[in-house]
Amino acid sequence: MSQQMRNILFATTLAIVTAAATTHAGPCKNPGAECATTASCCRGLLCVNSNPPGKRPKGICLSPTTTSTTTTSSTTSTVTTTTMPCVPDHSTCNVCGPTTDNCGQQFFCAVGCDCEMHCVNGDVFGFQGDDCQDCSMECFFQCGGECDHVLFDGVPCDPN
After folding, report:
1. Predicted confidence (pLDDT) per residue in 38-63, tens digit
2. 83, 106, 132 — which closes off a domain?
3. Which domain holds residue 51?
4. What is the DSSP secondary structure assignment for residue 95, as one 8-state letter?
5. Strand runs (DSSP E) across 34-156, as ranges?
6. Total of domains in the chain
7. Nearest alpha carbon to residue 131 among 104, 113, 158
8. Please, are residues 102 and 86 in contact by the beta-carbon 8 Å criterion?
9. Residue 7 domain-assigned (yes or no)
10. Non-local CB neighbours of 95 within 8 Å, separated by 6+ positions
């Protein structure tokens, strides 16, 4: 086999291997992105999910939290501890309105909020719903398929 043929064979093999590697490698996931494993997160991030094992469909890419403690005695030492970031758990949401999650962050709990449903014929119905879709479906049934508009916790629902 000639040197030129070896070079062509080597270049072709290299191109195939490189193309295969780049078609399978995707960009890493940034903080806050949904992930299945830590390997899919960008360097230094962890894929975290607060659900118990067996119930983890997806997690979130988050940075670990690092804290430092300095102790002074006859010598000075620094201990660094890496802890998992707090993963918000909104499963205890049971009242309509602003509330605080297990991480101390405020969020809007939309369970049992008031829906105001207006039919085309002028009838108005009240309903306790969990979101605009829930209220809009109830409006469709209450108004016989002729729902004019829906308010969810006083805010108009997007008709789309």
Report:
1. 788 888 887 777 555 555 567 788 87
2. 83
3. 25-83
4. S
5. 34-35, 46-48, 59-62, 65-72, 76-83, 97-100, 106-109, 113-119, 124-129, 147-152, 155-156
6. 2
7. 113
8. yes
9. no
10. 109, 111, 112
